[in-house]
Write a structure and sequence with these properties.
A hairpin with a 6-residue loop joins strand 15 and strand 16. The chain is of the alpha+beta class and 826 residues long. The chain folds into 5 domains: 6-68 and 146-172, no CATH class; 208-321, no CATH class; 323-398, no CATH class; 405-539, no CATH class; 552-745 and 795-825, no CATH class. The protein is extended. The N and C termini lie far apart (83 Å). One of its GO terms (cellular component) is endosome. It holds the Pfam family Vfa1. Residues 163-181 have a biased composition (Basic and acidic residues).
Length: 826
């Protein structure tokens, strides 16, 4: 078969733009080509080269198709209707004249009365006849047109689709012929390599110019810069015209500019590298020095113009890099990386200027609250990029003028962003501290404190972060001040700071110097806090979380079976957030906290292999979370009426935290701080198995929700009591048990049924096959389980649940008060 050329393909796939409307059977209905709904209407060309299904409603859309009507037939139809209308009017006129003459001929009064009565009846009959005639004479519905002409856009789409189908058919026929693929293996390899190079999936050989640039790159100094424009915050694309604002004498300057094109990292990609003034702007792995910002050339021209002065270039470089909190060395050292939220909205003057430039001046006259609402609905629109550029321009114009100032941080008394020079004095004493405030624009404020704030006031701030440093931490740090901004230079061998989200954090009580000859100490205690781990690194970002019922609805504990339940993360659910799933592995135990409830005390116990929490609330009583205690368990932390939980952001996953301490610290002489309640033990399970144990009273239950796996195996249950308290027993695959998963709900149950089945196996807890535990609550008149192997319990005493990794749950109903004992059960 001859190859299909372009002209041949066009000739073969051309058909007239005339489609006839036909109907098919209901069983042959297919999806509409426009809206994908099932339809029995088909449009087909006269030569049957093209057809497609379409809904009848689309045929009335004048933007989709135009009906083709026979003008001569339509004219004859109109003439016929006109003649019929004339005959009907003539007949009505003759009948009215006849009735009028009959009325005039009757003059007798009595007869006239009778005639009037009859006339009324006749009028009624006449009206009925007229209505009947109108119904008979009502026009019959017009026949819908059957021939249509598609609009140009849709007709071209049909042609293109037909041509693509024909081309694909020809390709399949050619590929099926012998000899279509080359037989030489080397040709295949070369062809594949050329294709990968063409699509930039493999580095192609370097040109002589690129080899020379690679040698220069090895000898040059590399400055790191962002992959987004530092003015409009838009990601840079390959080939964008950009301006590098850089300095060789970081951090004070002077600053220079270099016009170039943005390119991908590394010198082995296509395109030349910007190498200028002994610097290489390849942004490769060797780019680790600060001192470079990058802007779109259009943004640069909008901010400074085409011929800016050296003073404005210096201001621009200082402003762009000193205002980035991610460039601060003590922020980089913190793990996980801190996110500094930006304030809502922009400066009203920047919005007004950008609105006039964009041709929407009324937007600049709206109240700031309304502008913030508009921005939240469309945050990524180009208009806000323009607003960011004008915000930068206004900021540069309002920077204060002043000389560069340099001094040791320990001599500062106070400074605030916008101050030309700081207020300095003698160095810090041993009792004084320095509070450094940071926000999304870098260092905001520095203030000397005569003493550490006592007691701590753990009020979380959303937009700011704080550092409380003593004399030993700041004595070697130099501070630079320029244009109303501040920069702290990184000293040698400085461990960094602890960064808080509250301005009055607890004081660090003890430090352990064990790493690198005492250079990097660790924190082992906070003032009035009960510590969870033995020690924590000093370079941490600590978050303060309110765990009172007025702020949260519950806490999800994520336990890791790979660590034998030793460590756990928490997710605190506030009033407006209740996520139901998580991508990370682990098991979740959810502790609900109703609005009227309150945590009375909290006890953390742990051993070398596992850990657990014992919590008492006002409405729900004592709750156990985590591994069942063994002989080597010890109480590590105790807090009475805990208000705050100090955490760091766990594994860096959004929303999850690792608890570090609880505030306030409980009394060590409190008997609850020393008691070690283990709970009832299972005889056939060794204590080293690290069972997850939970329990709940069975009396006074208002409703129960039981969650199961897809095979019906019990996972956990959420119990709501009549006094408003809530408990969760068992484990779950989700942070909050989702209502869309397999579950059963029972209101005011009267008994509990537990069914155990072992399909395809005879094993027990340690058997050779799966064993499923099924749990159901039901009222007195309902029998939930159909299997003959079940146990039914009245709602008295306590329900205990033990869970081990990859095994079924063990359910027992025991007498009240068993949770306090350590009995070994059969």
């Amino acid at each position: 078969m001859a190859p299909l050329t372009t002209e041949t393909l066009i000739m073969a796939t051309t058909f007239a733009n005339l489609y006839t409307h036909r109907k098919v059977a209901e069983t042959a209905a297919k999806a509409c080509d426009i809206c994908y709904k099932s339809s029995t209407s088909v449009l087909i060309t006269p030569d049957k080269k093209d057809f497609f299904f379409v809904c009848p409603v689309h045929l009335k859309d004048r933007y989709f198709c135009t009906p083709k009507i026979d003008e001569e037939a339509a004219k004859k139809k109109r003439e016929k209707e006109l003649e019929e209308e004339k005959e009907r009017v003539k007949k009505e006129y003759e009948e009215k004249q006849k009735k009028k003459k009959e009325k005039e001929a009757k003059k007798d009064k009595d007869e006239k009365d009778k005639d009037d009565a009859k006339e009324k009846d006749k009028d009624k009959d006449e009206k009925k006849d007229e209505d009947k005639d109108k119904e008979d004479d009502s026009p019959t519905p017009e026949e819908e047109p059957r021939v249509f002409e598609l609009k140009t856009t849709f007709y071209q789409q049909r042609l293109l689709k037909k041509r693509q189908a024909e081309a694909a058919k020809q390709d399949r026929e050619r590929a099926s012929k012998p000899g279509y693929f080359p037989h030489d293996k080397m040709n295949l390899i070369d062809l594949a390599a050329e294709s990968l190079i063409e699509y930039d999936l493999l580095p192609r050989p370097l040109t002589p110019l690129e080899e020379q640039q690679a040698l220069v790159c090895e000898r040059s100094k590399h400055l790191s810069f962002s992959s987004t424009c530092d003015a409009c915050d838009v990601p840079l694309s390959r080939g964008d015209k950009v301006v590098f604002v850089y300095t060789k004498e970081w951090p004070m300057g002077p600053w220079s500019i270099c016009w170039s094109s943005y390119r991908v990292e590394g010198y082995n990609r296509r395109g030349s590298i910007t190498q200028f003034d002994g610097l290489c702007f390849c942004n490769g792995p060797r780019s680790s020095f600060l001192g470079c910002a990058v802007l779109h050339s259009r943004c640069f021209n909008l901010v400074l113009g085409r011929n800016p002065s050296q003073e404005m270039i210096n201001r621009l470089g200082t402003d762009l890099l000193w205002r980035k909190p991610s460039n601060l060395w003590f922020v980089k050292n913190c793990y996980p990386r801190i996110h500094f939220p930006e304030p809502d909205g922009f400066h009203h003057l920047a919005v007004s200027i950008a609105a006039r430039r964009a041709g929407i001046p009324l937007l600049g006259q709206l109240p700031p609250e309304l502008v913030v609402s508009i921005q939240s609905l469309c945050p990524n629109k180009p208009f806000w990029e323009l607003v960011r550029v004008y915000t930068l321009k206004l900021r540069l114009l309002t920077l204060p003028d002043g000389e560069q100032v340099e001094d040791y941080l320990g001599t500062l008394v106070s400074w605030k962003r916008g101050d030309v020079t700081p207020l300095c004095s003698t160095s810090l004493s041993n009792t004084e501290h320095l509070r450094i405030t940071i926000d999304s624009d870098g260092i905001y404020k520095i203030k000397r404190l005569s003493e550490h704030v006592h007691p701590p006031k753990l009020l979380k701030r959303r937009l700011k972060r704080y550092i409380i440093a003593d004399v030993d931490q700041v004595k070697s740090i130099r501070a630079y001040f320029k244009d109303g901004l501040c920069w702290l230079l990184h000293p040698t061998f400085h461990p960094g700071f602890t960064i808080w989200d509250t301005s009055a954090p607890p004081q660090v009580l003890e430090l352990s110097s064990t790493a690198k000859n005492g250079r990097y100490p660790k924190i082992v205690g906070f003032e009035e806090c009960s510590m969870v781990p033995d020690s924590i690194p000093r370079t941490l970002s600590i978050e303060t979380i309110d765990i009172t019922a007025r702020c949260i609805t519950g806490i999800s504990f994520r336990l890791s079976p790979s660590l034998q339940w030793k460590k756990f993360d928490v997710f605190v659910h506030d009033k407006g957030s209740k996520p139901t799933s998580c991508t990370k592995s682990g098991k979740f135990v959810f502790m609900p906290l109703p609005t009227d409830d309150e945590i009375l005390w909290l006890q953390l116990r742990s051993s070398k292999h596992a850990s657990s929490l014992m919590v008492k609330t006002k409405l729900s009583g004592v709750i156990h979370i985590g591994s069942q205690a063994t002989e080597d368990f010890r109480v590590k932390a105790f807090s009475r009426r805990p208000q705050r939980m100090l955490c760091n952001n766990g594994l860096g996953e959004a929303g999850f935290h690792q608890p570090l301490a609880f505030y306030p610290k409980g009394d060590s002489k409190d008997p609850r701080a020393l008691s070690m309640i283990t709970g009832p033990q299972l005889r056939h399970i060794p204590p080293s198995s690290q069972l997850l144990w939970s329990w709940a009273p069975l009396e006074h239950i208002d409703n129960v929700t039981v969650y199961e796996e897809n095979n019906g195996n019990f996972q956990g249950m959420r119990i709501v009591y009549k006094n408003g308290g809530e408990r969760f027993v068992g484990i779950n695959q989700h942070m909050v048990p989702p209502t869309g998963s397999a579950y059963s709900y029972c209101k005011e149950p009267t008994h509990l049924s537990v069914e155990i089945t072992a399909p395809m196996t005879t094993g027990g807890w340690l058997g050779d096959g799966p064993i499923y535990t099924m749990v159901s609550f039901a009222p007195a008149d309902h029998w939930p389980l159909l299997s003959s192997e079940y146990t039914q319990y009245p709602l008295e005493g306590e329900l205990h649940c033990w869970v081990r990794p990859l095994e079924r749950a063990e359910i027992r109903v025991l007498p009240s008060g068993t949770w306090r004992r350590s009995d070994v059960l059969d």
